[in-house]
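Quick start: read one record
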Amino acid sequence: MICRSGELVESGTGIRFEVSDGRHRLPAFVIRVQGRARAFLNRCSHLSLELDWTPGYFLDAEGKRIVCATHGATYDPQTGNCLGGPCKGTGLVSVSVVELDGAVGLADNSVFELVD
């Protein structure tokens, strides 16, 4: 389990967690957007730096876009697609999650494994 469903507030702060691709531990995060939990690796597609300026703060002030705190690249919080800035068309890497029985966890078809 990544977190309890109630911990994710619509367009609010995110929950950080770690996954593994079988070789490396990778930072990731989950946010709630339009009622659904969405998760991505926590790295800007521009320079692979973590996105949040303070742990859990991934969205702009309006809660409408994911913003890289270092370079200002913006991403669609539903798809991870680049919307503007130095990401130049490259998007975030999505992490497949499911929400079931009041908890958010990795989907069975995820290419990642949750790191405890």
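The chain has a mean pLDDT of 94.
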